[in-house]
Amino acid sequence: MRMIPTILKNLVNKPATQPHPFIKRAIPAIYRGILTIEPEKCIMCKACATKCPTGCISVDPSSGLWKRDIMACVYCGVCVEVCPVKCIHMENAYTQPMSERQTQEYQCKPRVKKSAADKKDSKPEPRAENAAQTEQPVQATAEAAPESTADQAENAPVKEHENNEGNADPAS
């Protein structure tokens, strides 16, 4: 007898579920769906592979290969947050079901290591603007009159004992 009001209420109201194949559910704006990468923007820094909690991302900077094990990914979005050039994105779409293990592979621009000779040669020369700016304060201090040693002694900060680590009493 107690179920009759519930039965009548359910007969009058519309169903709580949606007819899925016919009506698609709206995807929320903050949904973490399909993970995509823009390989032309990737700098092969390995930040995504280092921070991935499941270890599903592997990056080989020497060959320029970026791999992701789709079945191991939990779509947490950490790789998207740590990417310095923002080449990894989460699209607002549902992932398709899979019956076998798959990996995504992208060929990015390989990272080239510079030799010691290349690093010496590639040092940028200071620009004339920066050199002029750095010279001006030096000239200004050279023109100022030096303070007397008595004034320097008065303004000098009092030094603690160098061996004192801060927890011992300075009077002892």
What does the model show?
- The protein starts with a helix and ends in a 17-residue tail after the last helix.
- The strands form two sheets. The protein has a three-stranded antiparallel β-sheet. A two-stranded antiparallel ribbon has the order 1-4.
- It is of the alpha+beta class.
- The protein has helices spanning 4-12, 47-51, 78-82, 116-121, 128-143, 149-155, and strands at 34-37, 57-60, 65-69, 88-91, 103-107.
Q: Secondary-structure map with pairings?
A:
Layout: H1 4-12, E1 34-37, H2 47-51, E2 57-60, E3 65-69, H3 78-82, E4 88-91, E5 103-107, H4 116-121, H5 128-143, H6 149-155
Quick structural summary:
This protein has 172 residues and is α+β, with helices and mostly antiparallel strands. The protein has six helices and five strands. It has a three-stranded antiparallel β-sheet. Strands 1-4 form a two-stranded antiparallel ribbon.
Strand order of the largest sheet: 2-3-5
Mean pLDDT: 75
Amino- and carboxy-terminal Cα gap: 89 Å
Strand content: 5-15%
Helix content: 25-40%
Number of helices: 6
**Outline:** elongated
Largest sheet: 3 strands, antiparallel
Order of helices and strands: HEHEEHEEHHH
Question: Uncertain segments of ≥5 residues (pLDDT<50)?
Answer: 128-170
Counting helices, strands and paired strands, the structural category is: alpha+beta
Gyration radius, in Å: 33 Å
Q: What is the number of strand segments?
A: 5
Structural descriptors:
28% helix; 5 strands; 172 residues; alpha+beta; three-stranded antiparallel beta sheet; disordered C terminus
